Write a sequence for this structure.
């Protein structure tokens, strides 16, 4: 805290003074120096080559018009390329050529205009700096006075300030009037409550686990040790809301050695001989947890790098996710195909407020 | 240009046919619009020149390019998520089920001549648009061009920045490809993480459960109608205030807080700025013809199940994605039956807070200095060391969030562990801004001292002279007064001296203000005064 009030600015550092007594807005803690170096005024004008030498000026003129001429060539070239290099069905090379040559023609046409115009302005147009005075942004006292009078007249002639009942009911009406518009947006989504929808998937007791995307069922014997399958429920392709169901029901299936799995109480029969199924939808913000590290049995979410340890029931071992991936209880049916024992026992995917309701 | 009358009294030459036509047309328009008044007012308006004033122009011109290329695309794009079987020219996707939005984007790319070019122009221009807005904001910030009377225009510019990001994100989502679908999935997760209302907002936005069949159509309306309308309106006010406030200028000989020195709109600025528009347009088209961007055909249609490793959002969304990645494990609470996803909600709050600080900074600085004067001379960043250091800290904070969005790519490219990269980013997110603050402040003060030194004692000329006594000295040359003026003319502030108010009290607010004021100004370096210069000349 400096107390060296040197007197150059009586206002600097004060807290009490208001600046209403004069019209000049104050500098606050700004120092108004009495001993400042004086502005030396404008530098003498330095003429450019083209100001001094008419031959150079003519050369610049030729350059500028040359560039504008090049621009015309570019435009014509672009039109020619559009016609001469059509897109041939089934030939990706033709698309590339069309894109490249059309683009180069247009770019040349535009750049030549631009460079020409800038060159013209810098080399041939008058190079002197001009000066314009600024005026304070606030209106003059007279103008401000007039403005106040206008408002006062408006107030007087309408009685806006006097007839407070009118004023207050008007404000009330205006505040309430947008509410119907807000209500109108309710039907952006269907009438039903989203919470039950988010709490269930299409997995049911006996639903077969099938391959994504072919939909062929998976036999337990096909899941060899160390392999991983991307799984969708049987019948997903036929379901009415295919993507919505898939966004909840996608599952990763892996087989580990049964002794590697640390199974908690109550989940003893959720795996089948070391085959486990976990929701593929990240419990962070819902990306598919698609990367399986076979050696470490870790699942990695490529979006935000949450890592889940499959040997510990998909517990989060790194990254922003909190909850483990929900496990799908599975078993085999009479034909040896893997089936779900039930739906997930908790909501899948990103957390939401009513998740535990 | 009006050529209705030839003012040279000696000429009696009849105006040419062209001149007669221009005169007639100008008269026709003016008699119906009074436009001559506008031309008189604005035609010779002065614009000061500095390379950094170009950044806002880049933003404006790339926005025009976006409007033009985007309009072209609307003639072909179908904003519908109705599933169709793709039957276009791109063989690898033939027969694949996808939304009409994706299929029409592929048709635009592969079956319309120039369609791919326009898509790439649009996307590259969008990237440039947000980038140039960001740089323009940094220029305004570091030169103090947000000070009175331009605080409102700073806010409008801030709104434009947010709108540009919103435009970018909604546009990115329209093709309904795998990458944009995953982006939407993340947004869905973000919204669901908002306490109490999140589930319902997501439900309403997507018209049901994610992904639904509505979001592309809704985003399309936002992207091409609502957001551009607000953007254009805000841009108009932004430009209008620029004209009313007149442009700032850097300190220079003859330039004062009360004048504007530069080139007139007609003709020099018009030619330069108009030419510059074509250069920006040309450069964008050049990039679009040479470099592929967002090849949705290699990603395929959206499917909630697959995702490829190493996917990146467009650069300006990176800071949000990085914020999500840097959350330490385990940030989620259960409050009775309710779940509070702090791991999602806290990053959202941090981003909102960061943006709020950006938006409100001018008002904070104005409160600290208490300065009510108008400022039209742009500061050199070194002459406002604390502000510049705060800016550097903010840039570092943003940069760390941004770098974190590429944590996986950094890890694979430099063969580091992903955990190591995340931990380093977390550490630097906190410590980096502090280091940046301290270093920047020191550098600014050192540069100010250097400026003082040069202003008072001249610069090293490199000329070594041997004095009669055998001593060698390097001759210092004095600056001319024009050069010196640029070094010595800047605003100086003192820390606020705490004094009781009229009631004899020192309020808590004033205490805070005084503390902030000494934080800003206590190690200030005062500008060189006339007396000092005279004294130093006497010494030589």
């Amino acid at each position: 805290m400096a107390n060296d009030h040197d007197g150059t600015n009586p206002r600097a550092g004060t807290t009490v003074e208001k600046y209403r007594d004069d019209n000049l807005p104050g500098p606050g803690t700004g120092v108004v120096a009495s001993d400042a170096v004086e502005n030396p005024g404008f530098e003498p004008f330095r003429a450019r080559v083209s100001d001094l030498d008419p031959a150079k000026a003519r050369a610049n003129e030729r350059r500028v018009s040359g560039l504008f001429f090049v621009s015309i060539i570019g435009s014509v070239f672009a039109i020619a390329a559009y016609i001469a290099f059509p897109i041939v069905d089934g030939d990706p090379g033709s698309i590339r050529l069309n894109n490249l040559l059309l683009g180069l023609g247009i770019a040349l046409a535009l750049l030549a205009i631009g460079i020409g115009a800038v060159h013209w302005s810098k080399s041939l147009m008058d190079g002197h700096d001009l000066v314009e005075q600024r005026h304070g942004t606030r209106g003059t006292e007279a103008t401000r006075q007039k403005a106040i009078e206008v408002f006062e007249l408006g107030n007087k002639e309408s009685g806006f300030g006097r007839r407070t009942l009118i004023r207050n009911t008007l404000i009330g009406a205006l505040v309430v009037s947008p509410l119907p518009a807000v209500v109108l947006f309710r039907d952006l989504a269907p009438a039903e409550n989203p919470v039950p929808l988010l709490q269930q998937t299409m997995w049911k007791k006996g639903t077969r686990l099938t391959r994504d995307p072919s939909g062929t069922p998976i036999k337990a014997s096909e899941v060899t040790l160390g392999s991983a399958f991307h799984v969708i429920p049987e019948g997903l392709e036929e379901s009415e809301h295919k993507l919505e169901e898939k966004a909840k029901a996608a599952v990763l299936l892996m087989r580990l050695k049964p002794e590697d799995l640390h199974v908690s109480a109550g989940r003893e029969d959720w795996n089948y001989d070391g085959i486990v199924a976990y929701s593929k939808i990240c419990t962070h913000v819902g990306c598919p947890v698609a990367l399986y590290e076979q050696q470490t049995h870790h699942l990695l979410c490529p979006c935000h790098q949450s890592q889940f340890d499959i040997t510990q029931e998909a517990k989060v071992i790194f990254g922003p996710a909190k909850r483990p991936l929900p496990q799908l209880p599975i078993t085999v049916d009479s034909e040896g195909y893997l089936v779900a024992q039930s739906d997930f026992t908790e909501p899948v995917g990103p957390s939401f407020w009513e998740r535990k309701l | 240009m009006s050529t209705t009358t030839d003012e040279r009294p000696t000429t009696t030459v009849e105006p040419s046919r062209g001149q007669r036509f221009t005169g007639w047309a100008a008269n026709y328009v003016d008699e119906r619009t009074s436009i001559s008044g506008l031309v008189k007012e604005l035609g010779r308006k002065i614009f000061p020149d500095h390379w950094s004033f170009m950044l806002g122009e880049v933003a404006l011109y790339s926005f025009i390019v976006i409007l033009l290329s985007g309009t072209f695309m609307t003639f072909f794009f179908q904003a519908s998520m109705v599933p169709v079987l793709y039957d276009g020219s791109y063989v690898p996707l033939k027969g694949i089920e996808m939304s009409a939005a994706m299929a029409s984007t592929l048709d635009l790319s592969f079956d319309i001549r120039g369609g791919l070019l326009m898509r790439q122009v649009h996307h590259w221009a969008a990237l440039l648009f947000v980038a140039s807005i960001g740089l323009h904001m940094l220029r305004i910030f570091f030169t103090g061009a947000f000070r009175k009377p331009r605080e409102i225009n700073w806010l409008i510019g801030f709104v434009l920045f947010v709108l540009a990001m919103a435009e970018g994100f909604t546009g990115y989502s329209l093709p309904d490809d795998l990458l944009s679908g995953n982006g939407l999935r993340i947004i869905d997760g973000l919204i669901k993480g908002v306490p109490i209302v999140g589930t319902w907002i997501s439900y309403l936005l997507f018209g049901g459960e994610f992904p639904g069949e509505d979001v592309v159509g809704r985003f399309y309306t936002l992207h091409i109608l609502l957001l551009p309308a607000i953007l254009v309106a805000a841009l108009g006010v932004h430009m209008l205030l620029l004209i009313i406030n007149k442009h700032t200028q850097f300190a220079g000989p003859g330039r004062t807080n009360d004048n504007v020195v530069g080139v007139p709109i007609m003709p020099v600025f018009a030619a330069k700025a108009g030419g510059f528009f074509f250069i920006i347009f040309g450069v964008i088209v050049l990039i679009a013809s040479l470099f592929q961007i967002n090849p949705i055909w290699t990603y395929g249609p959206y499917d909630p199940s697959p995702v490829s490793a190493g996917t990146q959002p467009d650069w300006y969304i990176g800071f949000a994605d990085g914020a999500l990645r840097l959350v330490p494990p385990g940030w989620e609470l259960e409050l009775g039956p309710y779940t509070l996803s702090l791991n999602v909600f806290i990053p959202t709050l941090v981003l909102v807070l960061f943006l709020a600080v950006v938006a409100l900074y001018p008002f904070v600085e104005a409160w600290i200095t208490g300065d009510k004067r108008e400022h039209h001379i742009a500061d050199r960043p070194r002459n406002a060391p604390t502000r510049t250091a705060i800016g550097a800290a903010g840039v570092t904070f943003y940069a760390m969030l941004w770098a974190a969005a590429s944590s996986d790519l950094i890890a694979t490219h430099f063969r580091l562990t992903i955990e190591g990269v995340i931990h380093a980013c977390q550490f630097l997110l906190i410590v980096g801004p502090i280091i940046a603050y301290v270093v920047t402040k020191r550098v600014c003060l050192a540069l100010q001292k250097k400026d003082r030194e040069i202003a008072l004692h001249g610069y090293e000329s490199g000329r070594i002279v041997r004095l009669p006594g055998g001593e060698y000295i390097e001759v210092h040359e004095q600056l001319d007064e024009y050069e010196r003026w640029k070094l010595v003319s800047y605003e100086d502030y003192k820390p606020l001296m705490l004094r009781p108010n009229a009631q004899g009290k020192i309020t808590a607010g004033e205490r805070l203000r005084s503390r902030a004021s000494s934080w800003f100004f206590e190690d200030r370096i005062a500008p060189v005064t006339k007396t000092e210069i005279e004294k130093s000349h006497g010494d030589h």
